[in-house]
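The aim of this short unit is practical: by the end, you should be able to scan a pair of folded records and say something sensible about each. We start with the first protein, listed as its amino acid sequence and then its structure tokens.
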Amino acid sequence: MNSLSPVKHSALEARARRVAARHGFLATKSRKRSLSADNRGGFMLVEVSTNCVEAGERYELSAEQVIDFFDKEDA
């Protein structure tokens, strides 16, 4: 993922958020700059209707993993 330009990286993150929203989830990205054991700096998936964390409890999901999560659900 480091090989992506900043524009492509932002587009991929936006796509991950759109895919999640289409399935009734919120893909939130950590805003914290200092990483820790409980904050990996990535995404967390929250089901909007129940406000429960579905995946990425420690903000460990990448944008690609968010997209893949829903691709598996659709299959």
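Turning to the second protein, read its sequence before its tokens, just as you did above.
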Amino acid sequence: MLVPGVWVVYSKTRVCTHGQTYEPRGNGKRVHNSVRDTKCTVRVNARVTATSNEEAFQTFPEVITVDTTHDTNSNRYKLFSFVVHDVFVKGQYVHYALVQTEHMVNLRRVMEIFKSNNPEWTKVRVVITDKAFHEKKVLLEIFPKAHQLFCQWHVLTWLKKQAGRLAPNVKKEVKSLIRLLVYAESTQGYEDAKVALLEQLGGDSSHPLYKTFQDNWDSSQEEWVTY
């Protein structure tokens, strides 16, 4: 998204009125309001919602994807993108929020702003995130009726990355089994793929990849397995 040429500055950070006045230490060459050294812990730097985006959410509010892009600038801000899918199964961005950190207080504020600008939020039934999304309990708090799922693309990418450390003759088979696990259409199909995965790892249940899978993924399969 290009920044309009009429904008005097490309970024503004609002100072929370609950905090104290911050005296800048720069030489004045760049106008910037900082939220550092204030008592309020909220760090929401900007949020963007267009009319066309709001209309997309009003039409397709049931499923929403919340994605995080890290290190968007020199300050390493995080960009939250809210996406819905239209009738052509094409992603439509409905909300952006630029924050300093992924701390709970920031995530909660981002969600509250989204809700205040989108009355249709009550119709959200599924929220999709990646495994790295912190403070998932904030989503449960903000969208209590919505079921939380992991993005299967992110699951595949993360697990295949772990498999990349294996020997070449094992790597290909393990990656194929990971795909079978993600897209399993039944409990039996999932269990069969898991047994085959353990066999490929030499039957060693203490193998780092298998142990990581058991500890972090197997117990939450309802959030990422197809069935």
